[in-house]
Amino acid sequence: MKKILIIAAALLCGMGRAAFPQENPAPPLQHQKKVFIAEKEKDIYWPMSMPFWVKLAASPEENAPSYLLSKVHPKSTTEAEQYLKDGVTLEITGQQFVRWYNVKTEEFIFLKFFADGNPPVTVETLEGAPTWTKGEGVFYGKGLMGSISARDDVSGVDQVYVSNDGGEFVPYNGQMVFDKEKEYFLRFYAVDRVGYAGEPKTLRFTVDTTAPETRIQSYTNFFESVLSTSTTLRLTAEDNLAGIKNIFYRIDTQADPSLYIDKDIKLADLSDGEHRVEYYSVDNVLNPEDKKVYTFYLDRTPPETESAFVGDHHNEKGVDFISPRTGINLSARDNKIGVERIEYAFKEGQYQVYSVPFTTPFGAGEHVVTYRANDKLNNMGPVKKIPVFLDNKPPKSTHTITGVKFDQRDTTWLTSRTTVQLSAVDDASGVGGIYFQLGEKKEYQLYADPISIAKEGRYLFKYYGRDRVENRETEHPYILIVDNTPPTLTKTFSVPKSGTAPGKDGSEIDVYPRYTSLFFGAVDNSAGIAGIWYSANGAKEVQYSTPLMFNDEGDFTLEVRLVDNVGNPSSETVRFIIKD
Asked: What is the dihedral of CA 134, 136, 142, 148, to 10 degrees?
């Protein structure tokens, strides 16, 4: 920014920097009136305000005796006494003549001199620098030179005098150089050779050698030197003396600078990336500012967004299955200025600001979550969609028993040869696994193959299904009893034996009287008896239902077969003799 400096011109260098006394400037010098005789022509120049007298000299020598003519012709309008006291007064400038008339020869002699009563005329010249006028103020730029000329039509110019900044008048000695930035107050006048001085002429002007200063400012939606397409640039310039004439700017590789016309520079058409603005000002006396450069980055690229599932998730043939517990995580990154916020919306709802992973408020089925992000300059990225299938129902599992079994209320008896198969169905994400527990103290196991239980005993059997997004089914509990032991036959005769008799093989056989009844029974350790069958003396096997009555004598051999409720078989041969 300029400062006004009061510096003497080259004409009066070294006079200091104090403010000049414009209110009380030094007066012009005093100049005595004098007679001037031209050296060559010997012309006499007489100050018009100075009266003269006429003398007669005996020779032209300077020291020749001279005698004042004191008599006045009677026809003269001037009295002798007045002439002797005041002399002859000149009234017009220019050539003057004293005429002598020879009465005898009737010849005239004209004695010439010049009367000079007008001061010289001065003319100033300021050139070599641009100029600009505002009101009464006159401004010049660099290179200003000044000169003063004077002209006098009679006796000629004796001297030109100059006063700088109200100081004393000094003789003018040639061309002046005004190379200091300041306000100048010049006065000057000329004196002719007979002592007439003109009235001082005054010049007031300011020399401005300092270039203006231009500033660039960004407005609307920017962060430091990162600008957006809605940002505008504004140029302002200051000049404390002559004032601003023009501001110029050039963007990037623009061929010619543009004239700034007090209208914000728009950046909407620029590409993403680094740019530069070259700018400068020129003041009204054509002092150019050194070019300045403003570099900035135009960010018109929005953030890149991504989504991810947190927790339960399964993709099947391009479909993303989630559960009500599944979180959706959103992230964004920006290439320059940073992400301002991420927003998301459910279906056609209002966007809300993302902060932490969120779950969806949907019911079962297909849905869409939309999201977007903008950077700190409000570059909004494209809307992205997350199509999801919400699976909030667990699978349905069941079991199938292959082989011998016996069901009674909530209990199933089976053998080690019996197998239990598990299966499940899920109408959305699919079955993720079936888990079972055999015995309360056992860990749950993932079902893979049919289950068989080798060891006899009573087991709490539980299982459940889980789909691929971790929806878990309520457990199915069952009691399983493994029975591998066949039943045992019990037999009871209605009367005690009467004795024994040798059999055909020589062994002793019990003997019972006629009309003896035989009762069969069975003992089973768990599943219970399914039935008792017998065959008497090789006859067809029949199922035992009521006691057997033996009325006739004879040897009897009964083949008895027992089966429990899970198919465990046993058999026994019963031999006895009926005889009275």
From this structure: 150
